[in-house]
């Protein structure tokens, strides 16, 4: 009863405040407009069409079966995917760039682009509306409330972009870490007499536990070659799909070896040596930068405390002696 009484008191205070009433009315009006827009959008795109729903379910099942890691629940895809299709940019360059970045992040589903923009719309609209509904319960000035709502909307719109850049960076790092082990295994398999396709499939099976991201890319390469794609096209797709500089160099080296008819095993061994030298140089470069990076913590954090401990007692003694004199 105390909670109900407190809630009724808040509601009475809210109804007596003109600014709070205006803000609440604006929030309800915005919610109504948003619900109307969603209803019209769902009506236009024909979400209730059973054929369209069946096709979207098959696409989601195919993306899950491919193991691309896309967290696509059926209901979320059926709702956010069609909403995002209306927000996808009309320029082919922009769509291609977003699709390429999503592939670099490991999202290879056909509906990845539309789902990305659907999530953007969801995060840009729903949190501000929830904030508008909660603001009448908190007494803050209207100007600050409007700025807060705008900030939440902008942050929700930019959040998927930040996540995409972070996902690309993380996946690139994981692929680069697994490439030296994959090269060593490829050299062993090639020198044992296996062809390039069979060697890559064998390496993909061996790397499933230690480097699952790289193993997934190599498995996809094997499926493409088994489906009839030639090795050169599959290697080019591997290069574009990952976007890793080291893998791009490996693909270029293998294509040159196929073009000139040189030994693939020797080519892989030479590239592995070059990759080790490159990694050693990167490690030496980072080690050389450590002294410069440690300069600022030493000056602003370590030296002041050292001076206080080392020179504090003599200074206090000198101050006491001067005061006594």
From TrEMBL:
InterPro entries: T2SS_GspF_dom. It is a multi-pass membrane protein. It is found in: Cell membrane. This is Type II secretion system F family protein. It comes from the Bacteria. The keyword Cell membrane applies. The chain crosses the membrane at residues 20-47, 117-138, 144-164, 295-323. Keywords: Cell membrane, Membrane, Transmembrane, Transmembrane helix. The keyword Cell membrane applies. Residues 183-311 form the Type II secretion system protein GspF domain.
